[in-house]
Amino acid sequence: MNRRLLTILLVAFVIASGCTFLVYRILGHIVVSSKPVATTKVVAAATDIKLGTVLTSSDLTTTEIAGTVPKGAILKPDEAIGRGVIADIYQGEPILDSRLAPAGSGGGLAATIPDGMRACAVKVDDVVGVAGFVTPGMRVDVLVSGQPPGESSGNAGTMTKTILQNIEVLSAGTDIQKDAEGKPQQVQVVNLLVTPEQAEQLSLASQLKIQLVLRNPLDTKVTPVPTTAMGELFAGQGAPQPKRVVARPAPKPANPTYSIQVINGTNSTEEKFNSPEGQH
């Protein structure tokens, strides 16, 4: 064999051996120095769990989480069993304390009411309920229409006022679940999430006609809205128009005249003369 070729092969072998040894040392150092990542066992949903459900042992399972445990994660099934779900939980998702109602509060609509708030029922029809599109989770404004107390029918008449804005719908009829497809449904009662003061306003407004107005959930502005009276809708429409008055030039006054009686003996004559101002 050619000595030159043999030398090249020998050098290549030495280089390859050195690279192999170097890679082995690096990988071996990484394996030795790395430590196993600690895991924590937490309670998770065994299946999809809907809002309002009271948890049972069959709804729960456990899962291992590596690294930092989510804040509020429940570690023992006993801490979750018997509590109501206030937000949808999906299969395999760790169950957090913030997604559950306090122990002993049960499930259903009552468990979804935050502390300090109230669920106020409003009777609606197809029109008041925005043609059936008021579904849980949506935001509405509340308008009332009627005759203000102490106002006679001869004044402004029926008036409409926006009394509440950006109010969350808790339930529509017996449904407390959000409709992902937004399908309309005919309901007779809508429960709104309000403060105690707003609940009093709705109670008084129930004696008048109530109208719910849908709004964009991202639009959270609360702006002053002036009251609208029936008379304002028809202002300037159908009212008799004043007759147009055409100015006419005033007639010129007659030129004043002067009379002079001339006596010539027994003859008497009268001469008339125009005033100097009347002459042109």
Keywords:
six-stranded antiparallel β-sheet; about 280 residues; 10 strands; alpha+beta; Type Iii Antifreeze Protein Isoform Hplc 12; two-stranded antiparallel sheet
3D structure, described in words:
It is built from 3 helices and 10 strands; from the N terminus they run H-E-E-E-E-E-E-H-E-E-H-E-E. A hairpin with a 2-residue loop joins strand 9 (257-264) and strand 10. With 280 residues, it is of the alpha+beta class. The chain has 3 domains: 1-34; 37-112, Type Iii Antifreeze Protein Isoform Hplc 12; 117-233, no CATH class. The protein is 16% helix and 26% strand. The relative contact order is 0.11. The longest helix has 31 residues, at 3-33.
* Total beta strands: 10
Strand/helix succession = HEEEEEEHEEHEE
User: Segments where pLDDT lies below 50 for 5+ residues?
Assistant: none
Question: Structural class, from helix and strand content?
Answer: alpha+beta
Q: What characteristic shape results from the CA principal axes?
A: elongated
- Mean pLDDT equals 78
Number of domains: 3
Number of helices: 3
Can you summarize the main beta sheet? 6 strands, antiparallel
Tell me the distance between the termini.
149 Å
The radius of gyration over CA amounts to 46 Å
Percent helix range: 10-25%
Q: What portion of residues belong to β-strands?
A: 25-35%
Give a topology summary.
Layout (H helix, E strand, L loop, with lengths): L2 H31 L5 E7 L14 E7 L51 E6 L15 E8 L12 E14 L16 E6 L1 H10 L3 E7 L12 E2 H4 L23 E8 L2 E8 L6
Antiparallel strand pairs: 1-2, 3-6, 4-5, 4-7, 5-6, 5-8, 9-10
